[in-house]
């Protein structure tokens, strides 16, 4: 037994020495990782390794309720070499950078409606689009009526910051003409037909009304590129219009609310005499869609892939994902996924292939 004990002592000693060496070298290791991340983030074309096609990334899969793992609602759509952003919640612009999809690369932002959680990151997105790429033109922003007041409000809030940055960095780095956003307003009502926003030989982007009463206007969006399609529901109760737009789509990105988990929050609010929180928890049930309802809608529409996002409430514990989804997966026979920040769905042009990865920068 003595030789075995000596061997064990020797192994432990070597492990301690190696561990101590790694601890002492941790700064050098961290610097190498940091340098690699910086090089990736500064790449001139972050999409050069993607096949031509339609790609969808979740830059924010959360909602107003706190979730340490999810930023506010945001979806990036890459069609060929063009990138579009749909909604921009708190923290979403930072996620875009962590996904190596920097704001300076955005062709346009599309807003579904003007609830605070869908526009909270607008100021940061406009700033990063301007300063991150020396943009000479404001960010194009599409949205239904009311858009101008939203954009103008954020620009007014950032007007002092604009002056500081021009004075500090100079007009070559931050051209004054590139500050802020340029609103492209379209009129939409409950029964409006599709509104075509972009129409080229390869790419078509349309907006359509959804059911988010009393919020009006509220819209979803559909992107079609070289035979591939994605529909984004926006915030909505179960909507016949979403179902019609999603018929045969490759991908449906749909919002989802769990009445079971919201109910637990409401019970806790009532017990704590937080009457306002209890009332809000009750009211939000009427204008969102449950995971099961989203799955049934996707099944009827013959969607190939259903990705749930804008998850209400937050899911701070991984074990809650099952209770959140319930039996939704059994009601849909395509590919089903509960979205996470960084999820990236790729649909190569003129094919039926759909793949998923996660683009969020992590230490490897």
Description:
This protein has helices at residues 2-24, 26-41, 92-98, 116-119, 122-131, 147-157, 159-169, 240-245, 259-271, 275-283, 291-300, 321-325; strands spanning 53-60, 74-79, 82-86, 106-110, 139-144, 181-186, 195-199, 203-209, 219-225, 228-232, 251-257, 305-312, 335-338, 343-348, 355-358. The strands form two sheets. An eight-stranded mixed beta sheet has the order 6-5-4-3-2-1-14-15. By secondary structure, it is α/β, with parallel strands linked by helices. The protein has one domain: Metallo-beta-lactamase, Chain A, CATH 3.60.15. The protein contains twelve helices and 15 strands. The protein is 34% helix and 24% strand. α9 packs antiparallel against α10 (275-283). β7 and β8 form a beta hairpin.
């Amino acid at each position: 037994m003595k030789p075995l004990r000596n061997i064990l002592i020797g192994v432990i000693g070597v492990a301690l020495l190696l561990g101590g060496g790694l601890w002492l070298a941790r700064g050098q290791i961290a610097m190498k990782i940091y340098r690699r991340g910086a090089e990736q983030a500064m790449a001139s074309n972050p999409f050069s390794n993607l096949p031509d096609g339609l790609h969808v990334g979740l830059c924010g899969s959360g909602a107003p309720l706190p979730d340490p793992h999810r930023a506010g609602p945001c979806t990036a759509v890459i069609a060929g070499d063009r990138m579009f952003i749909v909604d921009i919640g708190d923290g979403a612009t930072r996620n875009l950078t962590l996904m190596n999809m920097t704001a300076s690369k955005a062709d346009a932002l599309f807003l579904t409606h003007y609830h605070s959680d869908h526009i909270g990151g607008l100021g940061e997105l406009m700033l990063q689009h301007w300063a991150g790429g020396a943009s000479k033109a404001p960010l194009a922003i599409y949205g239904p009526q009311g858009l101008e007041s939203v954009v103008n409000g954020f620009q007014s809030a950032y007007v002092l910051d604009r002056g500081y940055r021009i004075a500090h960095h100079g007009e070559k780095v931050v051209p004054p003409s590139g500050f802020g956003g340029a609103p492209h307003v379209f009129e939409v009502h409950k029964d409006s037909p599709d509104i075509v926003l972009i129409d080229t030989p390869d790419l078509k982007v349309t907006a359509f009304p959804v059911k988010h009463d009393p919020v009006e206007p509220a819209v979803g969006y559909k992107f079609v590129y070289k035979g591939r399609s994605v529909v984004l529901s926006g915030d909505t109760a179960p909507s016949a219009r979403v179902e019609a737009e999603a018929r045969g789509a490759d991908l449906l990105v749909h919002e989802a609310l769990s009445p079971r988990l919201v109910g637990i929050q409401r019970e806790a609010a009532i017990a704590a005499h937080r009457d306002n929180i209890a009332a809000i928890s009750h009211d939000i049930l009427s204008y969102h869609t449950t995971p099961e309802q989203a799955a049934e809608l996707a099944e009827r529409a013959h969607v190939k892939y259903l990705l749930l996002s804008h998850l209400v409430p937050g899911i701070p514990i991984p074990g809650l994902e099952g209770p959140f989804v319930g039996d939704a997966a059994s009601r849909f026979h395509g590919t089903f996924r509960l979205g996470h920040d960084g999820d990236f769905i790729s649909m190569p042009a003129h094919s039926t292939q759909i793949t998923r990865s996660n683009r969020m920068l992590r230490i490897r």
